Predict the structure.
Amino acid sequence: MVGTRLRVCGKEVQHRVFGLRLQRSGFCDKFHFLKFPVGCCENGGIVLHSGRLKTAAFQTAFADNAPMIYRQNFIKELTYTAVGIFVVILAVLVSTQAVNLLGRAADGRVAADAVAALIGFWTLGMTPLLLVLTAYISVLTVLTRFWRDSEMAVWLSCGLSLKQWLRPVLAFALPFAALVAAMQLAVLPWAELRSREFAELLKQKQELSLVEAGEFRTLGKRNGRVYFVETFDTESGVMKNLFLREQDDKGRENVVFAKEGRFALTDHKRTLELTQGYRYGGIPGEADYNRVGFEHLSLVISTTPKIVNPVDHRRTIPTARLIGSDNPQYRAELMWRVSLPLAAVILAILAVPLSYFNPRTGHTYNILFAIGFFLVYQNGLTLLRNAIENGKIGFWAGFLPLHILMLAAASSSCASAPCPRSPSAKPSKPH
């Protein structure tokens, strides 16, 4: 609408501008529809000429409505982009983990009916880091497109500074940070505890699922135990005509024959319960073998403590117990849980200056810098967590410096980023 004279008489009306030709940019860009009130002038009309708004009412309407328009549409586009990025990354990671677990299930290392639960626990543990990455990539992707399509140049030329984009970015990133904080501080410790209990239960049931009639199988990892079962009832778990051979640390061999046997879980011990059989013990090559008959014999396969209040597993400890602890491992875990929500906000802010793209050159060096900043941030947090865990540095010395450094880098980048100057918009009398 360049050089067009609009005459409006009577009361205040609504009008739409589909595009503005800016004097400095020299092109007509696709703007979202701008709705603003247009009032009558002295001679009943307003004029748009060379991109300069000729009425004070027009300029005031644009200044009042443009911030709301760009924020609403920017956050809307960020939301759609974030949903797509999250779904794609999650699908790739879950499919990769599913293939890995299915391969282990095919080899007998994981029960087939446990694959879905293990994938669920693994996905839940990866979600916080995935949310941080999603917020970062979404802001970077949308703003890079704005620079590439020159939409950012238009908005900046209209008087919006680069710092004004931080408000909608924060409005978008803060819900991500809140969700990450809720998962890190409350959900994940509970999920990790359930995951470890489930893994232990699978381990205890592994021998039951691997019993095959007519085949020699190893039993546990100690004493070289090998057993053979003639028949096995899968419903009752009863093995009949069982043969077992084991060797102790002194080289003495024991051979057991039993009429029946079954695996049992008692007091968190995996045992093999045998009934009506004989036990032969002796040293190979010698004739002094002993024979002992029994009605019932219980062989302990392994002893595994129950994970109820897992002091040894820091990832399962509630956050309230980590606060104020003198244990370096607990401090390291607390530092990691609190760092990810902050990282979600800081990376989103950092994506604003890193998104700068010059469409004239076509170089995408900003993407390389963005990847580099993320790797430095993530690996730096990991190194600091390990340093706290090993007692080399204190909690605050490992928690604050990297966050402050990255936030300072984001602030300085926003201040020094290229910003087109807005054209003069002095009102003049209509003609």
About this structure: The radius of gyration is 35 Å. The chain has nine helices and eleven strands. The longest strand covers residues 253-266.
